[in-house]
Specification:
A hairpin with a 2-residue loop joins strand 12 and strand 13. An 8-stranded mixed sheet has the order 5-4-6-1-7-8-2-9, with helices on both faces. The chain has a 4-stranded antiparallel sheet with strand order 11-12-13-14, with helices on one face. The chain has 503 residues and is an alpha/beta fold. It is globular and about 65 Å long.
Length: 503
């Protein structure tokens, strides 16, 4: 029962209201502290666990160009350390044998032969890695080569793809000034500049954005031609002498002999290795930065290349590259190694499409694992990133598979075939250990790449049933994509329309 007499007396006490205010404030502080001490919500925990991601993509780096992938001369201790600290995949492929479509495959998760060759454009309205991550709360950046949009009909800038900050080449967005490009060693110095931009961007996230998770495409210039290292970079290899017997692959020895007929093979190899080591030092700076800023544990580093080494395979076979050697002598410095594999850039043999792939993911991946079983293809990147970051895939067609399990150190057996259809009429299919290729003349070849990684022995006349099976897979796929003549005609019409707009 309420005693109203006592209440009246209580409210008559002098200075009650100041004390009431103080008591109210004290109660609010206690409640606030109790709330802060409660376990974080499921959503907050999920946000905290989302990894930062940096994807380092080199340009024309061969499968055999790193110390950890068997190069006899290249000094790449920092990149090799990524492999020591993470997982290195020996069966990694890009979705094309040259720059633009392989990059499209990474960003879109779809074979370039389905749509890309008709326009040479990544479409802003379709899913892409950066757009997907931006919508999921990531801060996103792209520094380096873009090369996924031609003309301005579909896109004006990488910002159309959910990218917060970018400085690129071969895009419609901000790029280096003419003054910067006048530096005779601009290309040789560009990797350090891109790394500086990456570190600045990451620092902004912690200072300005309350530790928002970040994703960076760090798509650098090495080892694309023309290779012209600075004197300081070159000094590391001033005493290097090439012995062709140091290269086990006869395809590579044959190529280096060809280069040696038209220039100094020692100087060429010195320049190439200098470019690699300069890249490696830049990667080392980035790794040190992450460690010093407490970001190493929750940052996934992916290192790869967009295709096999230059120059283009057909230019070497036809010796048409010789004229280019005369006009631009530093093209002779393009002596990258395809490792154990056949051919080079712009070939659907493994030397053109097989690439190094290293994943360092401290919170999930084991150290020092070499995965010889999982087949990774460029189109797998988008669905894998979605899975790693806990994102539902946007509604669209995808050719890639979620390989989060493999990135976490557990090999995954690929149950579906992989396809390539290039705009120069080369085609290929990989099904298990068997690979079928088709040249421009329509001739079909069959190889067992497990037993014959160099694709020396055509098995179609020996394993006839397997040849029919594999060729059928390729034929069935080709029936689902535009004929290459159609794609070429579409692209030609598009380019003409863009020229008319420009005028």
């Amino acid at each position: 029962m309420i005693n109203f007499s006592m209440m009246n007396t209580f409210f008559k006490i002098k200075n009650w209201w100041p004390w009431a205010a103080k008591i109210t404030l004290l109660i609010a502080l206690i409640v606030g502290l109790l709330i802060r001490c409660q376990p974080p919500t499921q959503k907050a925990t999920a946000e905290a666990e989302k990894p930062n991601i940096i994807f380092i993509l080199t340009d024309d780096l061969g499968a055999g160009d790193l110390g950890c992938t068997g190069h006899p001369y290249a000094q790449t201790p920092n990149i090799d350390q990524l492999a020591i600290d993470g997982v290195r995949f020996t069966k990694a492929y890009m979705s094309a044998s040259w720059c633009a479509p392989s990059r499209y495959g990474l960003m879109r998760g779809q074979y370039p032969s389905r749509e890309f060759y008709g326009t040479r454009n990544l479409m802003p309205e379709q899913p892409s890695v950066t757009k997907m991550l931006k919508e999921a709360g990531y801060a996103t950046a792209h520094f380096g080569k873009w090369h996924m949009n031609i003309g301005k009909k579909y896109s004006n800038s990488p910002s159309d793809f959910g990218i917060d900050e970018h400085l690129t080449i071969l895009s419609g967005g901000p790029t280096w000034s003419k003054e910067e490009r006048k530096d005779p060693y601009f290309r040789a110095k560009s990797t350090d500049k891109y790394v500086d931009l990456t570190m600045d961007f990451i620092q902004k996230q912690s200072i300005e954005k309350d530790n928002k998770p970040f994703y960076v495409n760090l798509w650098v210039a090495p080892t694309h031609s023309y290779i012209d290292p600075t004197p300081e970079q070159l000094s590391v290899y001033k005493n290097l002498k090439v012995n062709l017997e140091d290269f086990k692959n006869p395809w590579q020895r044959e190529f280096l002999e060809f280069v040696g007929q038209h220039g100094d093979i020692n100087k060429s190899m010195q320049a190439y290795c200098a470019d690699l080591t300069a890249l490696d030092k830049a990667v080392g700076r980035l790794m040190t930065f992450l460690k010093e800023n407490g970001l190493e544990e929750n940052t996934m580093i992916v290192f790869s290349s967009d295709n096999g080494p230059g120059p283009l395979t057909f230019q070497v076979e036809e010796e048409s590259v010789v004229e280019r050697y005369k006009k631009m002598p530093t093209l002779l410095n393009n002596v990258g190694s395809s490792g154990d594999y056949r051919d080079r850039k712009l070939s659907v043999h493994d030397g053109g499409i097989r690439v190094p792939l290293i994943v360092k993911w401290p919170k999930n991946a084991p150290k020092g694992k070499v995965d010889t079983e999982t087949t990774f293809v460029g189109v797998d990147w988008l669905p894998t990133v979605a899975s790693i970051c806990g994102i539902d895939l946007p509604e669209a067609n995808y050719d890639g598979h979620d390989l989060k399990t493999a990135f976490s150190g557990k090999a995954v057996k690929r149950e579906t075939p992989v396809f390539w259809s290039e705009n120069d009429y080369q085609k290929a299919v990989l099904s298990g250990n068997y690979k079928g290729t088709m040249n421009k003349a329509g001739e079909f070849f069959l190889y067992n790449i497990e037993n014959d990684p160099g694709e020396h022995k055509d098995l179609k006349s020996i394993e006839t049933a397997k040849a029919e099976e594999v060729k059928s897979l390729l034929d069935n796929y080709l029936a689902t994509v535009p004929d290459m003549e159609q794609s070429k005609a579409q692209f030609k019409a598009y380019r003409l329309s863009q020229k008319e707009v420009a005028h």
